[in-house]
């Protein structure tokens, strides 16, 4: 079965060429001409990954991603943008983007990025199916099947990558975990973009776990992180 891409791009000519290349590479592609249309057809298309242009009429790519993640936190997605502004990249990272591609780019590069993300996603599904899906972490209850992290009356809805990161850090609790080991295990590579993305995710986990004073995730300068859990 072909892997399915939802492509949201408002430039007709650009989208047509990109769609043809992706289909030629073996993907099934559903194209939406703007963010509003993409959101409307998302549930019917059931894609494996979303490729979202940032600047679109009616609903931009960031807003579209927020709406998708709200209901499908495990959905991987890539942002396409004509700008290389630092603010845009940080915003995309905070939303949990799996990648961020600046136009113009080689289609072959995008295809490789899509393939790598889908490989990591498939490995995560297999790995999660063989591991315990629900277990306590300090005062929290981690539910990897429903993507939640609960503490008394508070429940955080987490993404698939957040769940993978929590599993990995907890499995290596109370010891130093090197940056490159986390990047290779969760992101699949240790390039600059992945490193910045990891830093954003670590900051997010610190906020999630802030309600339990026995849990901390300190940085070890130049080396990595520790997931400390006091008994």
Tell me, what's the shape? globular
Give the percentage of residues in beta strands. Answer: 15-25%
Q: Can you tell me the residue ranges where pLDDT is under 50 for at least 5 consecutive residues?
A: none
**Class by helix and strand content?**
alpha/beta
Assembly state = single chain
Please give the share of residues in helix: 40-55%
Main sheet specs: 5 strands, parallel
Average of pLDDT: 87
String of helices and strands: EHEHEHEHEHEEEEHEHHEEEE
Tally of alpha and pi helices = 8
N-to-C terminal Cα separation, in Å? 48 Å
Could you explain how this protein is built, in words?
- With 231 residues, the chain is of the alpha/beta class.
- Helices cover 45% and strands 23% of the residues.
- It is built from 8 helices and 14 strands.
- The chain has helices spanning 12-24, 35-45, 61-71, 86-94, 107-129, 160-171, 179-187, 192-208; strands at residues 4-8, 28-32, 49-53, 77-81, 99-102, 134-137, 140-143, 148-151, 154-157, 176-178, 215-216, 219-220, 224-226, 228-229.
- The protein has a 5-stranded parallel sheet with strand order 2-1-3-4-5, sandwiched between helices. It has a 4-stranded antiparallel sheet with strand order 6-7-8-9, with no helix packed on it.
- Helix 2 (35-45) runs parallel beside helix 3.
- The longest helix has 23 residues, at 107-129.
- The chain is globular, with a radius of gyration of 18 Å.
- The model has no long low-confidence stretch (mean pLDDT 87).
Strand and helix layout:
Blueprint: E1 4-8, H1 12-24, E2 28-32, H2 35-45, E3 49-53, H3 61-71, E4 77-81, H4 86-94, E5 99-102, H5 107-129, E6 134-137, E7 140-143, E8 148-151, E9 154-157, H6 160-171, E10 176-178, H7 179-187, H8 192-208, E11 215-216, E12 219-220, E13 224-226, E14 228-229
Parallel strand pairs: 1-2, 1-3, 3-4, 4-5
Antiparallel strand pairs: 6-7, 7-8, 8-9, 10-13, 11-14, 12-13
